[in-house]
Amino acid sequence: MVLKYFGHSCVLIDDKILIDPHDGGSIGLPKPDIKKVDLILITHDHYDHNAYQIFEYKDLKMNFYGSLNYVNYTIKGIKSYHDKYNGKLRGQNSIYVIQKNDGEKIVHLGDIGHLPDESIYKELYGANVLLIPIGGVITINYKEALEIIDKVSPKIIIPIHYWIKGHYMPLDPPEEFLSNIKYEVRGIDLKNNLIDEKIEESKKLVYILSY
Predict the structure, then answer these.
(1) What CA–CA distance (Å, rounded) separates 67 from 190?
(2) Which residues touch 83 (CB under 8 Å, ≥6 apart)?
(3) Could you report the average pLDDT of every consecutive run of 10 residues in the chain (211 residues)?
(4) Is 42 exposed, middle or buried (0-12, 13-18, 19+ CB in 10 A)?
(5) SS (H, E, C) the chain
(6) Domain 3-209, CATH 3.90.79.10 — does that match?
(7) Tens of pLDDT along 39-58?
């Protein structure tokens, strides 16, 4: 599995599946350097996650719940919420669990705003890669993220939805998260954003944007 991370919550899997695309300019980050993908998955219909119109694609799923087989992947969309009040403040959120036929598993939590219940944890456990928001304010905060990580036990963590220099959204920066995570931390940047670890052989790693 090869991942490219484009900041905020946007990630590209194997140059085929794009999750939560942003347009760059509306959030103060560079526009993702992508022209065409097979499938776009959107966790929820907010402007910083739903810029699918600027890309060429074959299929689109927004707030998808259920299961589907897509080429060499099994994709499951799990209902969650953008807040701690069953969506009354910010609406619903899809968690995407994507598993390749060879067994590698990536989980994207979108803008989850609450701790999952045990039925959801069963779906997330043992992820090779976990994309998890840490910036608080409108999602879970870094302490809640650490609690989820402890239960899911992923091999690779890609923190999402946090403040970096230039970002317009007033989110928390990643320092508190990084000072409390017991994983090896590796910096990446938006010009060298390829994450191509041999997942089955890797140490426990966190990839964080340099700024």
Answers:
(1) 32
(2) 89, 90, 113, 114, 138
(3) 94 97 96 95 97 96 96 96 95 97 93 96 95 97 98 96 95 97 93 74 85 52
(4) buried
(5) CCEEECCCCCEEECCCEEECCCCCCCCCCCCCCCCEEEEEEECCCCCCCCCHHHCEEEEEEECCCEEEEECCEEEEEEEEECCCCCCCCCCEEEEEEEEECCCCEEEECCCCCCCCCHHHHHHHCCCCEEEEECCCCCCCCHHHHHHHHHHHCCCEEEEECCCCCCCCCCCCCCHHHHHHCCCEEEEEECCECEECCCHHHCCCEEEEECC
(6) no
(7) 999 999 999 999 999 999 99
**Where do the structural domains in the chain lie, given as residue ranges?**
3-209
Tokens representing 11? 């990630």
Q: What is the pLDDT of residues 2-31, one digit of tens each?
A: 999 999 999 999 999 999 999 999 999 999
